[in-house]
Write a structure and sequence with these properties.
- This protein is an all-beta fold.
- The chain is 0% helix and 52% strand.
- It has no helices and eleven strands.
- It has a five-stranded antiparallel β-sheet, with no helix packed on it.
């Protein structure tokens, strides 16, 4: 197990937004993007990857395939890798986004877990373990 604090990765620059890697394990990367007011993440894609974003602090606007979506602290956003993604800190406070880029190796990993009690044993039934 590894434990970290997002606060340790909230480093801001007046010149441009910052990106601070927290974890890089296999095909998954987790990092924090930090934006001062007025700073932007340019339009880009992550082909073949799922993008999950959590607004840690602040407010701003995501632009996904040209559609603007305002966000604020504690909002969650999912963007498919083939969608065009941009972000604009159009608020008056700094913004930090916790981002996870993930490739799911198999659909079996993306299923809910079923817990069944059998006698005195509790077993988590995963498709891969069946």
């Amino acid at each position: 197990m590894e434990k970290n604090s997002v606060k340790a990765y909230q480093e801001f620059s007046e010149e441009r937004f910052t990106k601070r890697i927290i974890y890089k394990k296999g095909e998954t990367t987790a990092f924090v993007l930090n934006f001062m007011p007025g700073q932007q993440l340019p339009v880009h894609k992550h082909p073949g990857t799922e993008v999950y974003l959590y607004v840690v602090t602040g407010t701003g606007t995501f632009i996904v395939d040209g559609q603007e979506t305002p966000v604020s602290e504690a909002d969650l956003v999912h963007v498919g890798g083939d969608e065009e993604l941009a972000f604009n800190n159009n608020g008056s406070e700094p913004v930090s986004l916790y981002v996870v880029l993930s490739k799911v190796p198999s659909e079996q990993y993306a299923k809910n877990t079923i817990i069944k009690r059998k006698g005195s044993k509790v077993a988590a039934l995963f498709a891969l373990m069946a």
